[in-house]
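re: that chain from earlier
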Amino acid sequence: MSPAEVMTLLILFHHSSYRNLKHFYTQYVPKILGREFPHRVSYNRFVELEPSVLMPLCAYLHTRRVTSRGIAFVDSTPLKVCHNKRIPRHKTFASIAERGKTSVDWFYGFKLHLVIDDTGELVAFFVTPGNVDDRK
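^ sequence. v structure.
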C-alpha cells in the first residue's frame, strides 16, 4: 500500500462511526471500499505501516488549518500507548509519554488537543504528553 492510501484510510476511519480500527479495516474496507483499495495489506501489516505516515499526515493536517473567524472550540482526546498494567514494561515512548487523567479514567500516553472554529474547520492541533492540563 502506498503512504497516501494508508493516510486516506486513517482519515476515513476517524470520519466513520467505527470505534475500533480493526473492525473498520477488516469489515468495512473490504466490503465497501474494496475496489478503491485493491492492494490492501493484512491488518497487522497496516498497523506496522501507520507510524511511517505520521509525519506526512501531520503535514497534511497542517495544510488544512484555517484562521479563526470567530468562536473557537477546544477539546482533547487521549492517545493511549499501552494498557495501564503494562506501563512499567513499556519502552517505546518511555521518555516522552506520561500518565494522564480523563473524565473517565487514567491512561498512559499522549493527548491530542484540537481547536476548531464554529464552522468545524481545523484552526490548530497539538500533541502533548498525557499529563498536560487541557486549559494550558
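The chain has a mean pLDDT of 86.
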